[in-house]
């Protein structure tokens, strides 16, 4: 076991820190903090992510993140881990990005050892319970539908769409019913692909673990060695090693460069315009309603002109905008307890949206019968 890594910390810090590398090449940082109250925490990061999703299963890493918690050989009950944490003032979460998947929890320090036992099993012998497939797939679908209305996800997907189609970067990271169970396949086939992904990339040499607790460094190290040494190591290349030197962003055409700039400009102009409008309203509360309405109408007219000046892009539906700025719309939205949305920048190159879009038979979802869902062409509307 290697302990030769030097960790520099402030001399006045009451925390004690130790870094080690287990025989399976799992890198670990241990922090003993007697002043951390009654809570201890752990985080394990796996150096893989959506950039390694198979081309025909975009979103597989994200789906795996959800399914990993659904029982292990040692603790087969799918809800046992969450129940144990919540019973002892604990919390848990996980996330997936292009190059990294992270899993973490905190719990009452008195139950940290038992929690680590349960946590480590997800990376040793997960079951990927078939009974949980539909539930977790629907949760992934819900996340996708939520993201469709968030401009930062849209703008991020624009960059991905313009990247080299032959590169790992060119994928759809969140996943949806359409991409995770493509037409002609079944959800059980997707589960098999998920297991293959886990067995290939969930290698100890790609993992880093952090433990923070009130326990001594020796106690933390003993728990680490006991529970995390069994994680298998396949000496998998890092993402940097695997894709080093490969071009992932092709030269953007003049039109696509113009388009991405338009998206950024319109979002900036929208928020600047709305912020100025809101400030003006506060400074001029004595304005009568007619004056307020006139100013709102003028602002909306200017906004539309900004969109229309892009000519064919606007007329062809490449830009679809919903500023919802009039006073009447504000009143209608307030009465429905809804939120006024910022402009929705929906690029529709080649009559397709930036996100995979589907219309799925709802009765199939409720019955759990997904065997190559029938996807209807939405015509590019979100």
TrEMBL record:
Query: One Pfam family of this protein, by short name?
Result: Peptidase_M16
Q: Name the cofactor(s) required for activity, per the record.
A: Zn(2+)
Give the span(s) annotated as Disordered.
322-343, 363-382
According to its record, what are the GO cellular component terms? cytosol; mitochondrion
Question: What family, per the record?
Answer: Belongs to the peptidase M16 family.
Ranges of Low complexity compositional bias?
Answer: 324-343
Q: What name does UniProt use for this protein?
A: Putative Insulin-degrading enzyme
Q: Which PROSITE patterns match?
A: INSULINASE
Q: Taking every annotated instance into account, which residue ranges of this chain make up the domain Peptidase M16 C-terminal?
A: 190-251
Query: Is-annotated flag, keyword Metal-binding?
Result: yes
In terms of domain of life, where is this protein from?
Answer: Eukaryota
* Record-linked Gene3D superfamilies: Metalloenzyme, LuxS/M16 peptidase-like (3.30.830.10)
Q: Mind listing the GO molecular function terms for this protein?
A: metal ion binding; metalloendopeptidase activity
Q: Which organism is it from?
A: Streblomastix strix
Q: Which UniProt keywords apply?
A: Hydrolase, Metal-binding, Metalloprotease, Protease, Zinc
Record flagged with keyword Protease = yes
What are the BP-aspect GO terms? peptide catabolic process; proteolysis involved in protein catabolic process
All copies of domain Peptidase M16 N-terminal, residue ranges: 31-149
């Amino acid at each position: 076991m290697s302990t030769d890594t030097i960790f520099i910390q402030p001399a006045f810090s009451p925390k004690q820190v130790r870094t080690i590398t287990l025989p399976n090449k799992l890198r670990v940082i241990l922090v003993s903090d007697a002043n951390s109250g009654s809570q201890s925490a752990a985080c394990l990061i796996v150096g893989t992510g959506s950039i390694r999703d198979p081309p025909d299963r975009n979103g597989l890493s994200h789906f795996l993140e959800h399914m990993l918690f659904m029982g292990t050989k040692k603790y087969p009950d799918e809800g046992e881990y969450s129940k144990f944490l919540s019973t002892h003032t604990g919390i848990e979460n996980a996330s997936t990005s292009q190059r990294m998947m992270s899993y973490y929890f905190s719990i009452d320090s008195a139950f940290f050892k038992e929690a680590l036992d349960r946590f480590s099993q997800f990376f040793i012998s997960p079951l990927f319970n078939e009974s949980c497939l539909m539930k977790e797939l629907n949760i992934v679908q819900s996340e996708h539908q939520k993201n469709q209305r968030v401009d930062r996800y849209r703008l991020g997907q624009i960059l991905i769409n313009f990247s080299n189609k032959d590169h790992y970067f060119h994928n759809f990271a969140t996943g949806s019913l359409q991409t995770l169970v493509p037409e002609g396949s079944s959800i059980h086939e997707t589960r098999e692909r998920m297991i293959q992904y886990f067995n290939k990339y969930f290698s100890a040499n790609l993992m880093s673990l952090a433990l923070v607790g009130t326990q001594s460094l020796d106690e933390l190290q003993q728990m680490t060695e006991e529970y995390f040494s069994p994680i298998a190591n396949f000496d998998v290349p890092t993402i940097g090693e695997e894709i080093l030197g490969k071009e992932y962003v092709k030269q953007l055409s003049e039109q696509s460069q113009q388009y991405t700039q338009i998206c950024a400009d319109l979002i900036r102009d929208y928020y600047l315009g709305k912020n100025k409008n809101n400030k003006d309203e506060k400074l001029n509360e004595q304005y009568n309603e007619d004056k307020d309405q006139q100013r709102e109408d003028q602002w909306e007219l200017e906004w539309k002109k900004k969109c229309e000046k892009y000519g064919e892009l606007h007329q062809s539906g490449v830009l679809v905008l919903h500023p919802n700025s009039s006073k009447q719309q504000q009143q209608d939205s307030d009465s429905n307890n809804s939120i006024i949305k910022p402009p929705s920048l929906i690029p529709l190159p080649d009559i397709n949206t930036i996100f995979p879009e589907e219309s799925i038979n709802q009765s199939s979802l409720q019955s759990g019968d997904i065997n190559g869902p029938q996807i209807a062409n939405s015509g590019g509307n979100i």
